Structure formats: structure tokens, C-alpha cells
Amino acid sequence: MRSNHHHTSNIRHFPCIAALLAVFVMAPLSLVAEERGEDDIQIVEGENRTIYEYRQNGILTMIKVVPKRGRPYYMVPADGAPHYESLDHKRQLYPQWVIVEF
């Protein structure tokens, strides 16, 4: 019976060990992503369209709308502000389609 109790004790500690292992494995991966300066893309799926919000260093820099039918387009500031500025606080955005791609 003594060996059975020892086995049960190890099983009880497994979630703690797994959580610690996950922290040590995932922490370096997130640091690598931050060092590379990777962009964050949030995808919002709707019934008739999918919206991609592109953020760089936490700043909303681009919004791409992909309708279920029709061509994708980008929402840009109506005031003509540069696209690299934050779009979070823009009151008016208008659609802009890509005419030609190289």
C-alpha cells in the first residue's frame, strides 16, 4: 500500500509541475516576439465580413475589411492623417480600395 500512496502523491503534484513547465517554456517565446517587434493582429469575424486590426507597439495603425462578397478594402482617416499614426481616436474613417498591386 505504501507504493500506491506514493503514486497518488505524484499525480496530485502533476498540475503544479505542468504549470511551472509551461511558464518556463512560454516566457522565453514571448520575450523573443517582443524583441522582434512583431505586430499584433486582432481578427473580428462578422456575419458578412472579417475585420483585421493591425497594431504596432499597441498602436492601431491599419484596419483591413474583407467582405464575404466583394474586394477587401482598408479604412483610412478622413482627415488625411498619415497611416502610421494611431487610428484609435479617429472620428471618421473612409474605405480605400487597392487598385493595382505589383
Q: Uncertain runs with pLDDT below 50, 5 residues or more? A: 18-36
Helix-and-strand structural type: alpha+beta
The main pleated sheet reads as:
5 strands, antiparallel
- What proportion of the residues is helical, as a percent range? 25-40%
Descriptive notes:
The chain is α+β, with helices and mostly antiparallel strands and 102 residues long. The chain has two domains: 37 residues; 58 residues. It is 34% helix and 32% strand. It contains one helix and five strands; from the N terminus they run αβββββ. The longest helix is centred in the N-terminal third of the chain and has 35 residues.
Layout of helices and strands:
Elements: H1 2-36, E1 40-45, E2 49-56, E3 59-67, E4 73-77, E5 93-97
Summarize the structure in short.
With 102 residues, this protein is of the alpha+beta class. The protein has one helix spanning 2-36; strands at residues 40-45, 49-56, 59-67, 73-77, 93-97. The chain folds into 2 domains: 1-37; 40-97.
Keyword list:
alpha+beta; 102 residues; 2 domains; single chain; five-stranded antiparallel beta sheet
